[in-house]
């Protein structure tokens, strides 16, 4: 391995050293020290995991690989959320945190991730035009086969409204969502991929290694990051809850926003790298796959973990979580409406970013429910405007798989 690659991996791995020392020594300083130490370990492990997943595309490719690798990249988030759900089975005080991380990370992906990718990608196109490399674009175009992902996201986003109306996530509903996730993977396995998006950054250095060395390094990176995540997820999750009072911050807020920033930082960085290299469609595809994973496998697994921890057949939600799910579901539908035409314009990116920022200004329950209703109304209007594309998107997950290239772009009129 090159010295540069070893340095990057050691730097990320070094973030986990203080946490591993605390775990192995049995020392438990608690509070903010635990939050920083174990949070840094999660960040370091997440970077190594993301590099390994991206480098693995050298040996496995296709839409199915994109979905699976997007799932692998968000394992730190899964570990934290499932711990809260499991713990809530024996300690009801943890029920309020079970889905907080999911709703926060889900809204971050769409409210910040999508707009950032679009704005950076369009800026990159404009820069290349000024350099004589390409013509400018007013919108980011998605592959025609992205309709499968968009259709699944729209359907599970619609089904997600069952959660705030029921005030719980039942075990049966969770199993249905897991089944949808498995069907989604099967469906993607029958779509041809000709995109061959290049691996970039540290992952590219891993991918450039000889075959045997590359595969050994990738397996080692997966194994090390998985061990670190398993060792640190529980103390990090507990520290998020206990550190709120010391920091003067609502513990729910820490769980909802700090944990996703730690676990999804690598995914955001990879998406940004794709965008600035003119591969905005690849970045959006990864973020859409991550959202499908969250709404299906992650949400579906929460009541399973809750039951395994000694809880009942449903994970109950308090009024705050009902409100959070309503905001997340309506934001998802707005996002689906915006991309159903397979075009993401600069102005729609700004709208998504603006509606995301509004939730931090509108803090009252009534105001946030009004914001959720406004997002749903806006989604309905956009769906009507883009109604010509609706049938193709809704039926895409159910149509007989065809040989469609992931790189086929929608023609502009």
Can you put this structure into words, describing what you see?
The chain has 413 residues and is mainly α. Helix content is 73%, strand content 3%. It is built from 17 helices and four strands. The strands form two sheets. A two-stranded antiparallel sheet has the order 1-4. Strands 2-3 form a two-stranded antiparallel ribbon. The longest helix has 37 residues, at 211-247. It is globular and about 60 Å long. It starts with a helix and ends in an 18-residue tail after the last helix. Residues 403-413 have low confidence and may be disordered.
Write a concise synopsis of the structure shown.
The protein is mainly α. The protein has helices at residues 3-14, 17-25, 31-55, 63-73, 75-88, 100-130, 147-159, 162-166, 171-188, 201-207, 211-247, 251-276, 280-308, 319-339, 346-361, 365-385, 390-395; strands at 139-141, 168-170, 314-316, 343-345. Helix content is 73%, strand content 3%.
List keywords for this structure.
single chain, 413 residues, mainly alpha, two-stranded antiparallel ribbon, 4 strands, 73% helix, globular, disordered C terminus
Number of strands: 4
* Total count of helical runs of at least 4 residues: 17
Q: Record the strand order, biggest sheet.
A: 1-4
From the N-terminal CA to the C-terminal CA, the straight-line distance is 49 Å
Q: How much of the residues is beta strand, in percent?
A: under 5%
Rg from Cα: 21 Å
Given helix and strand content, the structural type is mainly alpha
């Amino acid at each position: 391995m090159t010295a540069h690659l070893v340095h990057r991996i050691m730097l990320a791995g070094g973030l986990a050293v203080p946490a591993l020392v605390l775990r192995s020594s049995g020392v438990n300083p608690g509070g903010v020290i635990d939050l920083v130490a174990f949070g840094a370990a999660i960040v370091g492990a997440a970077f190594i995991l993301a590099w390994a997943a991206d480098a693995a595309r050298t040996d496995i490719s296709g839409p199915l690989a994109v979905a699976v690798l997007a799932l692998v990249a968000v394992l730190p988030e899964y570990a934290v959320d499932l711990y809260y759900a499991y713990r809530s089975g024996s300690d009801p005080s943890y029920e309020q945190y079970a889905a907080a991380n999911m709703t926060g990370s889900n809204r971050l992906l769409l409210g910040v991730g999508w707009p950032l990718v679009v704005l950076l990608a369009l800026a990159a196109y404009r820069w290349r035009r000024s350099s004589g490399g390409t013509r400018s674009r007013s919108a980011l175009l998605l592959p025609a086969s992205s309709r499968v992902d968009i259709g699944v996201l729209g359907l599970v986003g619609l089904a997600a409204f069952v959660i705030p109306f029921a005030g719980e996530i039942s075990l049966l509903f969770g199993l249905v969502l897991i089944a949808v996730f498995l069907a989604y993977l099967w469906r993607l396995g029958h779509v041809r991929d000709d995109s061959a998006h290049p691996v970039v950054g540290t992952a590219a250095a891993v991918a450039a290694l000889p075959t045997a060395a590359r595969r050994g390094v990738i397996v080692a990176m997966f194994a090390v990051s998985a061990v670190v995540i398993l060792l640190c997820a529980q103390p990090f999750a507990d520290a998020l809850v206990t550190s709120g009072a010391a920091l003067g911050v609502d513990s729910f807020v820490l769980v909802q926003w700090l944990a996703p920033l730690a676990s999804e930082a690598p995914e955001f960085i990879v998406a940004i790298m794709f965008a600035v290299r003119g591969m905005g469609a690849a970045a959006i595809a990864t973020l859409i796959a991550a959202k499908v994973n969250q709404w299906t496998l992650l949400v579906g697994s929460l009541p399973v973990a809750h039951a395994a921890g000694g809880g009942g057949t449903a994970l109950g939600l308090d009024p705050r979580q009902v409100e959070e799910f309503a905001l997340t579901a309506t934001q998802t539908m707005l996002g689906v409406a915006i991309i159903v035409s397979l075009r993401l314009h600069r102005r729609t990116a700004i709208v998504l970013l603006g509606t995301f920022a509004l939730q931090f200004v509108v803090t009252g329950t009534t105001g946030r429910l009004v914001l959720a209703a406004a997002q749903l109304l806006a989604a309905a209007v956009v769906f009507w405007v883009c109604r010509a594309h609706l049938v193709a998107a809704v039926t895409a997950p159910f149509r007989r798989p065809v040989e469609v290239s992931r790189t086929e772009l929608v023609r502009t009129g």
